[in-house]
Protein backbone atom coordinates (compact mmCIF):
# COMPACT_ATOMS: atom_id res chain seq x y z
CA UNK A 1 0.00 0.00 0.00
CA UNK A 2 1.02 3.61 -0.49
CA UNK A 3 0.40 6.65 1.69
CA UNK A 4 1.02 10.13 0.24
CA UNK A 5 1.14 13.49 1.99
CA UNK A 6 1.03 16.80 0.13
CA UNK A 7 0.51 20.46 1.02
CA UNK A 8 -1.56 21.42 -2.02
CA UNK A 9 -1.96 25.14 -1.23
CA UNK A 10 -5.58 25.04 -2.41
CA UNK A 11 -7.30 21.78 -3.40
CA UNK A 12 -9.89 23.58 -5.55
CA UNK A 13 -7.18 25.11 -7.75
CA UNK A 14 -5.40 21.76 -7.96
CA UNK A 15 -8.51 20.05 -9.36
CA UNK A 16 -9.46 22.91 -11.67
CA UNK A 17 -6.02 23.14 -13.31
CA UNK A 18 -5.58 19.40 -13.79
CA UNK A 19 -2.64 18.83 -11.43
CA UNK A 20 -4.74 16.46 -9.33
CA UNK A 21 -5.01 14.13 -12.32
CA UNK A 22 -1.23 13.98 -12.70
CA UNK A 23 -0.79 13.34 -8.99
CA UNK A 24 -3.23 10.39 -8.92
CA UNK A 25 -1.89 8.82 -12.12
CA UNK A 26 1.75 9.14 -11.14
CA UNK A 27 1.61 8.12 -7.48
CA UNK A 28 -1.44 5.78 -7.38
CA UNK A 29 -1.97 6.21 -3.61
CA UNK A 30 -4.25 4.22 -1.31
CA UNK A 31 -4.29 6.85 1.44
CA UNK A 32 -3.92 10.60 0.77
CA UNK A 33 -3.25 13.31 3.34
CA UNK A 34 -3.72 16.86 2.06
CA UNK A 35 -2.78 20.02 3.93
CA UNK A 36 -3.83 23.62 3.30
CA UNK A 37 -6.91 22.57 1.33
CA UNK A 38 -8.50 26.05 1.70
CA UNK A 39 -11.98 24.65 1.07
CA UNK A 40 -15.10 26.08 2.68
CA UNK A 41 -18.14 24.03 3.64
CA UNK A 42 -20.36 25.67 1.01
CA UNK A 43 -17.95 24.69 -1.79
CA UNK A 44 -17.84 21.01 -0.97
CA UNK A 45 -20.94 20.28 -3.03
CA UNK A 46 -19.79 22.58 -5.83
CA UNK A 47 -16.52 20.73 -6.39
CA UNK A 48 -17.80 17.30 -5.30
CA UNK A 49 -14.68 16.66 -3.26
CA UNK A 50 -16.47 13.84 -1.46
CA UNK A 51 -16.20 10.69 -3.59
CA UNK A 52 -18.17 7.47 -3.48
CA UNK A 53 -15.13 5.22 -3.97
CA UNK A 54 -13.04 6.86 -1.23
CA UNK A 55 -13.77 7.60 2.41
CA UNK A 56 -13.13 11.28 3.03
CA UNK A 57 -12.41 13.18 6.24
CA UNK A 58 -12.15 16.96 6.11
CA UNK A 59 -11.25 19.44 8.84
CA UNK A 60 -12.26 22.89 7.62
CA UNK A 61 -11.33 26.23 9.11
CA UNK A 62 -14.29 27.50 11.14
CA UNK A 63 -12.88 30.92 12.02
CA UNK A 64 -11.73 32.09 8.57
CA UNK A 65 -13.39 30.68 5.47
CA UNK A 66 -10.97 29.38 2.82
CA UNK A 67 -7.97 29.28 5.18
CA UNK A 68 -5.85 26.32 6.25
CA UNK A 69 -7.69 22.96 6.37
CA UNK A 70 -6.58 19.32 6.08
CA UNK A 71 -8.17 16.34 4.36
CA UNK A 72 -7.61 12.58 4.56
CA UNK A 73 -8.79 10.30 1.73
CA UNK A 74 -8.57 6.50 1.92
CA UNK A 75 -9.90 3.84 -0.42
CA UNK A 76 -13.01 1.92 0.51
CA UNK A 77 -11.18 -1.34 1.15
CA UNK A 78 -9.27 0.28 4.05
CA UNK A 79 -11.09 -0.57 7.31
CA UNK A 80 -11.79 2.40 9.57
CA UNK A 81 -12.44 2.06 13.26
CA UNK A 82 -12.54 5.65 14.48
CA UNK A 83 -11.81 9.18 13.29
CA UNK A 84 -11.43 12.44 15.15
CA UNK A 85 -11.04 16.10 14.21
CA UNK A 86 -8.43 18.20 15.98
CA UNK A 87 -5.60 17.35 18.30
CA UNK A 88 -7.32 18.35 21.55
CA UNK A 89 -10.43 16.19 21.72
CA UNK A 90 -12.55 19.30 22.34
CA UNK A 91 -14.26 19.34 18.95
CA UNK A 92 -17.24 17.09 18.28
CA UNK A 93 -17.71 15.76 14.77
CA UNK A 94 -18.88 18.68 12.65
CA UNK A 95 -21.66 16.71 10.96
CA UNK A 96 -23.32 16.00 14.31
CA UNK A 97 -24.60 19.54 14.58
CA UNK A 98 -26.64 18.94 11.41
CA UNK A 99 -28.65 15.99 12.75
CA UNK A 100 -29.12 15.67 16.49
CA UNK A 101 -31.21 12.49 16.20
CA UNK A 102 -28.20 10.28 15.48
CA UNK A 103 -27.47 7.81 18.33
CA UNK A 104 -23.89 9.03 18.67
CA UNK A 105 -24.87 12.71 18.81
CA UNK A 106 -22.97 14.79 21.34
CA UNK A 107 -24.09 18.34 22.09
CA UNK A 108 -21.66 21.18 21.46
CA UNK A 109 -19.67 21.89 24.58
CA UNK A 110 -19.89 25.35 26.06
CA UNK A 111 -16.70 24.91 28.05
CA UNK A 112 -13.79 22.85 26.66
CA UNK A 113 -13.43 19.64 28.63
CA UNK A 114 -11.62 16.41 27.91
CA UNK A 115 -14.24 13.79 27.25
CA UNK A 116 -13.96 10.72 25.09
CA UNK A 117 -16.98 9.64 23.08
CA UNK A 118 -17.80 6.48 21.17
CA UNK A 119 -16.39 7.93 17.94
CA UNK A 120 -13.16 9.53 19.23
CA UNK A 121 -9.77 7.88 18.84
CA UNK A 122 -9.05 8.57 22.50
CA UNK A 123 -5.75 8.57 24.41
CA UNK A 124 -6.10 12.23 25.32
CA UNK A 125 -3.90 14.08 27.77
CA UNK A 126 -4.62 16.53 30.55
CA UNK A 127 -3.99 20.23 29.92
CA UNK A 128 -3.96 23.31 32.06
CA UNK A 129 -4.70 26.89 31.13
CA UNK A 130 -3.93 26.46 27.42
CA UNK A 131 -7.26 24.82 26.54
CA UNK A 132 -8.67 27.97 24.91
CA UNK A 133 -5.65 28.39 22.63
CA UNK A 134 -5.74 24.70 21.70
CA UNK A 135 -9.41 25.00 20.83
CA UNK A 136 -8.62 27.98 18.58
CA UNK A 137 -6.00 25.88 16.79
CA UNK A 138 -8.45 23.03 16.26
CA UNK A 139 -11.01 25.42 14.81
CA UNK A 140 -8.49 26.34 12.12
CA UNK A 141 -8.57 22.81 10.69
CA UNK A 142 -5.05 21.57 11.40
CA UNK A 143 -5.38 17.92 12.40
CA UNK A 144 -7.29 14.75 11.49
CA UNK A 145 -6.72 11.48 13.34
CA UNK A 146 -7.88 8.21 11.76
CA UNK A 147 -7.51 4.82 13.41
CA UNK A 148 -6.80 1.81 11.18
CA UNK A 149 -6.40 -1.77 12.44
CA UNK A 150 -2.59 -1.59 12.49
CA UNK A 151 -1.82 2.07 13.17
CA UNK A 152 -3.22 5.49 14.04
CA UNK A 153 -2.67 8.14 11.36
CA UNK A 154 -2.18 11.85 12.14
CA UNK A 155 -2.62 14.29 9.25
CA UNK A 156 -1.33 17.66 10.53
CA UNK A 157 -0.65 21.19 9.34
CA UNK A 158 1.60 22.91 11.88
CA UNK A 159 1.18 26.71 12.19
CA UNK A 160 3.81 28.96 10.64
CA UNK A 161 5.56 31.23 13.14
CA UNK A 162 6.06 34.78 11.86
CA UNK A 163 5.89 36.61 15.21
CA UNK A 164 5.76 35.92 18.94
CA UNK A 165 2.05 35.10 18.97
CA UNK A 166 2.20 32.57 16.12
CA UNK A 167 5.37 31.08 17.62
CA UNK A 168 3.44 30.37 20.82
CA UNK A 169 0.70 28.62 18.84
CA UNK A 170 3.24 26.57 16.89
CA UNK A 171 5.11 25.46 19.97
CA UNK A 172 1.86 24.60 21.77
CA UNK A 173 0.68 22.55 18.80
CA UNK A 174 3.92 20.53 18.59
CA UNK A 175 3.87 20.05 22.35
CA UNK A 176 0.30 18.72 22.21
CA UNK A 177 1.20 16.43 19.30
CA UNK A 178 4.09 14.98 21.29
CA UNK A 179 1.82 14.26 24.28
CA UNK A 180 -0.85 12.65 22.11
CA UNK A 181 1.73 10.40 20.42
CA UNK A 182 3.15 9.41 23.78
CA UNK A 183 -0.30 8.39 25.08
CA UNK A 184 -1.01 6.28 21.98
CA UNK A 185 2.36 4.50 22.15
CA UNK A 186 1.80 3.78 25.83
CA UNK A 187 -1.54 2.22 24.85
CA UNK A 188 0.21 -0.20 22.49
CA UNK A 189 -0.74 1.56 19.24
CA UNK A 190 1.46 2.11 16.20
CA UNK A 191 1.54 5.76 15.15
CA UNK A 192 2.17 7.43 11.77
CA UNK A 193 2.34 11.24 11.59
CA UNK A 194 2.49 13.03 8.25
CA UNK A 195 2.05 16.58 7.02
CA UNK A 196 3.59 20.03 6.82
CA UNK A 197 5.60 20.74 9.98
CA UNK A 198 6.77 24.21 8.84
CA UNK A 199 10.16 23.39 10.35
CA UNK A 200 13.34 21.86 8.95
CA UNK A 201 14.84 19.27 11.30
CA UNK A 202 18.54 19.56 10.48
CA UNK A 203 20.94 21.69 8.48
CA UNK A 204 20.86 19.06 5.75
CA UNK A 205 17.16 19.82 5.31
CA UNK A 206 17.62 23.57 4.74
CA UNK A 207 19.26 25.37 1.81
CA UNK A 208 20.40 28.31 3.96
CA UNK A 209 20.31 27.33 7.64
CA UNK A 210 22.15 30.43 8.87
CA UNK A 211 20.32 32.92 6.64
CA UNK A 212 23.60 34.23 5.22
CA UNK A 213 22.83 33.65 1.55
CA UNK A 214 19.40 35.32 1.84
CA UNK A 215 20.89 38.13 3.97
CA UNK A 216 18.46 37.33 6.79
CA UNK A 217 20.68 36.21 9.69
CA UNK A 218 18.92 34.34 12.50
CA UNK A 219 18.55 35.83 15.95
CA UNK A 220 19.52 32.52 17.55
CA UNK A 221 21.54 29.59 16.17
CA UNK A 222 19.73 27.17 13.87
CA UNK A 223 19.94 24.22 16.26
CA UNK A 224 18.70 26.19 19.28
CA UNK A 225 15.31 27.27 17.96
CA UNK A 226 12.68 25.94 20.43
CA UNK A 227 10.31 24.44 17.83
CA UNK A 228 13.18 22.65 16.11
CA UNK A 229 14.40 21.28 19.43
CA UNK A 230 10.92 19.98 20.21
CA UNK A 231 10.55 18.37 16.78
CA UNK A 232 13.91 16.65 17.16
CA UNK A 233 12.91 15.39 20.58
CA UNK A 234 10.00 13.59 18.89
CA UNK A 235 12.01 11.87 16.17
CA UNK A 236 15.67 11.68 17.19
CA UNK A 237 17.22 8.24 17.81
CA UNK A 238 16.31 8.66 21.47
CA UNK A 239 12.77 9.83 20.68
CA UNK A 240 9.73 7.64 20.03
CA UNK A 241 9.35 8.43 16.31
CA UNK A 242 11.52 7.92 13.23
CA UNK A 243 11.97 10.34 10.32
CA UNK A 244 11.14 7.73 7.68
CA UNK A 245 12.79 9.55 4.76
CA UNK A 246 16.11 9.88 6.62
CA UNK A 247 15.80 6.27 7.70
CA UNK A 248 15.94 5.17 4.06
CA UNK A 249 18.09 8.06 2.71
CA UNK A 250 20.40 9.17 5.54
CA UNK A 251 23.01 10.89 3.34
CA UNK A 252 20.92 12.40 0.53
CA UNK A 253 21.47 16.15 0.18
CA UNK A 254 19.36 18.78 -1.62
CA UNK A 255 16.25 16.71 -0.91
CA UNK A 256 13.67 19.43 -0.41
CA UNK A 257 9.86 19.50 -0.40
CA UNK A 258 9.07 23.23 -0.34
CA UNK A 259 10.31 26.18 -2.40
CA UNK A 260 9.53 29.91 -2.46
CA UNK A 261 7.24 30.38 -5.47
CA UNK A 262 7.70 34.19 -5.54
CA UNK A 263 11.44 33.93 -6.17
CA UNK A 264 11.25 30.93 -8.52
CA UNK A 265 13.43 28.95 -6.12
CA UNK A 266 12.22 25.58 -7.43
CA UNK A 267 14.20 26.08 -10.66
CA UNK A 268 17.44 26.20 -8.70
CA UNK A 269 16.27 23.74 -5.98
CA UNK A 270 16.76 26.35 -3.28
CA UNK A 271 14.30 25.04 -0.73
CA UNK A 272 13.63 23.26 2.55
CA UNK A 273 12.39 19.85 3.67
CA UNK A 274 9.49 20.60 5.98
CA UNK A 275 7.03 17.88 4.90
CA UNK A 276 7.61 14.69 6.90
CA UNK A 277 6.29 11.23 7.52
CA UNK A 278 7.11 10.03 11.04
CA UNK A 279 6.41 6.57 12.46
CA UNK A 280 7.36 4.61 15.55
CA UNK A 281 10.42 2.40 15.13
CA UNK A 282 8.55 -0.92 15.47
CA UNK A 283 6.19 -0.02 12.63
CA UNK A 284 9.07 1.19 10.42
CA UNK A 285 11.07 -1.99 10.89
CA UNK A 286 8.15 -4.38 10.41
CA UNK A 287 5.92 -2.68 7.81
CA UNK A 288 7.46 0.24 5.87
CA UNK A 289 9.50 -0.76 2.83
CA UNK A 290 10.23 2.57 1.12
CA UNK A 291 9.90 6.35 1.42
CA UNK A 292 10.71 9.07 -1.09
CA UNK A 293 9.99 12.60 -2.33
CA UNK A 294 8.17 13.15 -5.65
CA UNK A 295 9.70 16.46 -6.70
CA UNK A 296 8.50 16.37 -10.33
CA UNK A 297 4.81 16.88 -9.48
CA UNK A 298 3.71 20.52 -9.69
CA UNK A 299 0.63 22.51 -8.73
CA UNK A 300 1.82 23.79 -5.34
CA UNK A 301 4.87 25.32 -3.68
CA UNK A 302 5.27 21.90 -1.99
CA UNK A 303 5.72 18.45 -3.51
CA UNK A 304 4.33 15.07 -2.33
CA UNK A 305 6.09 12.60 -0.04
CA UNK A 306 5.08 8.94 0.13
CA UNK A 307 5.73 5.68 1.99
CA UNK A 308 5.14 2.13 0.79
CA UNK A 309 4.11 -0.28 3.53
CA UNK A 310 2.44 -3.63 4.08
CA UNK A 311 0.15 -4.63 6.93
CA UNK A 312 -3.10 -6.51 7.50
CA UNK A 313 -4.93 -3.97 5.31
CA UNK A 314 -2.99 -5.36 2.34
CA UNK A 315 -4.88 -8.66 2.58
CA UNK A 316 -8.56 -8.39 1.70
CA UNK A 317 -10.69 -10.28 4.17
CA UNK A 318 -13.07 -9.52 7.02
CA UNK A 319 -13.43 -5.77 6.50
CA UNK A 320 -17.11 -5.47 5.64
CA UNK A 321 -18.18 -4.89 9.24
CA UNK A 322 -15.59 -2.12 9.64
CA UNK A 323 -16.52 -0.36 6.40
CA UNK A 324 -20.25 -0.40 7.18
CA UNK A 325 -19.61 1.32 10.53
CA UNK A 326 -17.92 4.45 9.28
CA UNK A 327 -17.14 7.06 11.94
CA UNK A 328 -19.66 9.91 12.02
CA UNK A 329 -16.85 12.35 11.20
CA UNK A 330 -16.71 10.83 7.68
CA UNK A 331 -17.97 13.26 5.03
CA UNK A 332 -20.40 10.65 3.70
CA UNK A 333 -22.57 11.41 6.75
CA UNK A 334 -22.85 15.13 5.92
CA UNK A 335 -26.53 15.72 5.09
CA UNK A 336 -25.74 18.57 2.68
CA UNK A 337 -23.57 16.23 0.57
CA UNK A 338 -25.86 13.20 0.36
CA UNK A 339 -26.40 12.05 -3.21
CA UNK A 340 -23.65 14.29 -4.60
CA UNK A 341 -20.80 11.81 -4.34
CA UNK A 342 -19.02 10.84 -7.53
CA UNK A 343 -16.15 8.53 -8.29
CA UNK A 344 -12.57 9.74 -8.05
CA UNK A 345 -12.17 9.08 -11.78
CA UNK A 346 -15.08 11.44 -12.51
CA UNK A 347 -13.63 14.06 -10.18
CA UNK A 348 -10.25 13.82 -11.91
CA UNK A 349 -11.80 14.24 -15.37
CA UNK A 350 -14.14 17.03 -14.23
CA UNK A 351 -11.71 19.86 -14.93
CA UNK A 352 -10.69 18.32 -18.27
CA UNK A 353 -14.33 18.03 -19.39
CA UNK A 354 -14.98 21.63 -18.36
CA UNK A 355 -12.02 22.80 -20.42
CA UNK A 356 -13.14 20.76 -23.46
CA UNK A 357 -16.72 22.03 -23.22
CA UNK A 358 -15.52 25.63 -23.01
CA UNK A 359 -13.23 25.11 -26.01
CA UNK A 360 -16.04 23.53 -28.03
CA UNK A 361 -18.38 26.39 -27.11
CA UNK A 362 -15.83 28.97 -28.24
CA UNK A 363 -15.26 27.08 -31.51
CA UNK A 364 -19.00 26.79 -32.08
CA UNK A 365 -19.51 30.51 -31.52
CA UNK A 366 -16.60 31.29 -33.82
CA UNK A 367 -18.05 29.04 -36.53
CA UNK A 368 -21.48 30.66 -36.20
CA UNK A 369 -19.89 34.10 -36.45
CA UNK A 370 -17.99 33.12 -39.60
CA UNK A 371 -21.10 31.64 -41.20
CA UNK A 372 -23.11 34.77 -40.36
CA UNK A 373 -20.39 36.98 -41.83
CA UNK A 374 -20.26 34.90 -45.02
CA UNK A 375 -24.02 35.03 -45.44
CA UNK A 376 -24.03 38.81 -44.98
CA UNK A 377 -21.26 39.22 -47.56
CA UNK A 378 -23.08 36.99 -50.03
CA UNK A 379 -26.30 39.00 -49.60
CA UNK A 380 -24.45 42.28 -50.21
CA UNK A 381 -22.75 40.79 -53.27
CA UNK A 382 -26.09 39.59 -54.65
CA UNK A 383 -27.66 43.02 -54.14
CA UNK A 384 -24.81 44.68 -56.07
CA UNK A 385 -25.19 42.22 -58.91
CA UNK A 386 -28.95 42.79 -59.01
CA UNK A 387 -28.50 46.55 -59.10
CA UNK A 388 -25.99 46.27 -61.96
CA UNK A 389 -28.26 43.98 -63.90
CA UNK A 390 -31.12 46.41 -63.46
CA UNK A 391 -29.04 49.20 -65.06
CA UNK A 392 -28.24 46.93 -68.06
CA UNK A 393 -24.66 48.17 -68.19
CA UNK A 394 -22.70 46.63 -71.07
CA UNK A 395 -19.06 45.67 -70.84
CA UNK A 396 -18.02 48.31 -73.38
CA UNK A 397 -19.77 51.14 -71.55
CA UNK A 398 -18.26 49.97 -68.24
CA UNK A 399 -14.69 50.02 -69.69
CA UNK A 400 -15.29 53.47 -71.22
CA UNK A 401 -16.58 54.80 -67.91
CA UNK A 402 -13.58 53.37 -66.02
CA UNK A 403 -11.05 54.92 -68.42
CA UNK A 404 -12.73 58.30 -68.25
CA UNK A 405 -12.80 58.19 -64.47
CA UNK A 406 -9.08 57.26 -64.28
CA UNK A 407 -8.08 60.10 -66.64
CA UNK A 408 -10.10 62.61 -64.64
CA UNK A 409 -8.55 61.39 -61.37
CA UNK A 410 -5.03 61.69 -62.84
CA UNK A 411 -5.69 65.26 -63.95
CA UNK A 412 -7.06 66.10 -60.52
CA UNK A 413 -4.04 64.51 -58.89
CA UNK A 414 -1.65 66.61 -60.98
CA UNK A 415 -3.42 69.78 -59.91
CA UNK A 416 -4.08 68.93 -56.28
CA UNK A 417 -1.68 66.28 -54.97
CA UNK A 418 1.57 68.26 -54.77
CA UNK A 419 0.13 70.69 -52.24
CA UNK A 420 -1.44 67.92 -50.19
CA UNK A 421 1.69 65.81 -50.25
CA UNK A 422 3.88 68.67 -49.08
CA UNK A 423 1.57 69.41 -46.13
CA UNK A 424 1.41 65.71 -45.25
CA UNK A 425 5.21 65.48 -45.31
CA UNK A 426 5.53 68.45 -42.98
CA UNK A 427 2.90 67.00 -40.65
CA UNK A 428 4.49 63.54 -40.59
CA UNK A 429 7.97 64.92 -40.04
CA UNK A 430 6.79 66.97 -37.04
CA UNK A 431 4.91 63.95 -35.66
CA UNK A 432 7.87 61.59 -36.09
CA UNK A 433 10.22 64.11 -34.48
CA UNK A 434 7.94 64.57 -31.46
CA UNK A 435 7.49 60.81 -31.13
CA UNK A 436 11.22 60.25 -31.26
CA UNK A 437 11.86 62.97 -28.66
CA UNK A 438 9.34 61.46 -26.25
CA UNK A 439 10.78 57.99 -26.79
CA UNK A 440 14.30 59.17 -26.02
CA UNK A 441 13.07 61.07 -22.95
CA UNK A 442 11.29 58.10 -21.40
CA UNK A 443 14.00 55.66 -22.47
CA UNK A 444 16.59 57.66 -20.58
CA UNK A 445 14.37 57.72 -17.48
CA UNK A 446 13.25 54.05 -17.65
CA UNK A 447 16.54 52.32 -18.39
CA UNK A 448 16.66 49.02 -16.53
CA UNK A 449 20.10 48.40 -15.03
CA UNK A 450 22.07 45.23 -15.71
CA UNK A 451 23.05 42.98 -12.84
CA UNK A 452 26.75 42.76 -12.05
CA UNK A 453 26.92 38.96 -11.99
CA UNK A 454 25.26 38.06 -15.32
CA UNK A 455 24.97 41.39 -17.17
CA UNK A 456 21.24 40.79 -17.64
CA UNK A 457 18.30 43.21 -17.17
CA UNK A 458 17.25 43.38 -13.53
CA UNK A 459 13.84 42.90 -11.97
CA UNK A 460 12.02 45.75 -10.21
CA UNK A 461 10.55 44.75 -6.85
CA UNK A 462 8.88 46.47 -3.87
CA UNK A 463 9.68 46.16 -0.17
CA UNK A 464 6.68 44.57 1.57
CA UNK A 465 8.27 43.96 4.94
CA UNK A 466 7.23 46.34 7.69
CA UNK A 467 9.85 48.92 8.54
CA UNK A 468 11.38 52.17 7.38
CA UNK A 469 11.77 50.91 3.78
CA UNK A 470 8.21 49.67 3.35
CA UNK A 471 6.95 50.50 -0.16
CA UNK A 472 10.36 51.41 -1.62
CA UNK A 473 11.32 50.00 -5.02
CA UNK A 474 14.59 48.27 -5.78
CA UNK A 475 16.33 46.32 -8.52
CA UNK A 476 17.70 42.79 -8.09
CA UNK A 477 18.94 40.08 -10.41
CA UNK A 478 16.01 38.61 -12.38
CA UNK A 479 17.21 35.01 -12.00
CA UNK A 480 15.60 32.77 -9.36
CA UNK A 481 17.23 32.65 -5.96
CA UNK A 482 19.72 29.80 -5.60
CA UNK A 483 23.33 28.82 -5.24
CA UNK A 484 25.87 28.61 -8.07
CA UNK A 485 26.08 30.47 -11.37
CA UNK A 486 22.47 29.69 -12.29
CA UNK A 487 21.16 31.37 -9.16
CA UNK A 488 20.60 35.05 -8.40
CA UNK A 489 23.69 37.22 -8.01
CA UNK A 490 24.15 39.76 -5.20
CA UNK A 491 23.25 42.83 -7.27
CA UNK A 492 21.02 45.34 -5.45
CA UNK A 493 20.10 48.92 -6.35
CA UNK A 494 17.43 51.22 -4.95
CA UNK A 495 15.10 52.54 -7.65
CA UNK A 496 15.74 56.17 -6.64
CA UNK A 497 19.53 55.75 -7.03
CA UNK A 498 19.55 54.18 -10.51
CA UNK A 499 20.76 57.37 -12.26
CA UNK A 500 23.41 58.20 -9.66
CA UNK A 501 25.30 54.92 -9.68
Automatic annotation (TrEMBL):
It comes from the Eukaryota. Gene3D superfamilies: Endonuclease/exonuclease/phosphatase. GO terms for biological process: base-excision repair. InterPro entries: AP_endonuc_1, Endo/exonu/phosph_ase_sf, Endo/exonuclease/phosphatase, Znf_GRF. The record marks 198 as: Transition state stabilizer. Its EC number is 3.1.-.-. PROSITE patterns: AP_NUCLEASE_F1_4 (PS51435), ZF_GRF (PS51999). One of its GO terms (cellular component) is nucleus. Keywords: DNA damage, DNA repair, Hydrolase, Magnesium, Manganese, Metal-binding, Nucleus, Zinc, Zinc-finger. The record marks 275 as: Important for catalytic activity. One of its GO terms (molecular function) is phosphoric diester hydrolase activity. The active site is at residues 157, 196, 302. This is DNA-(apurinic or apyrimidinic site) endonuclease.
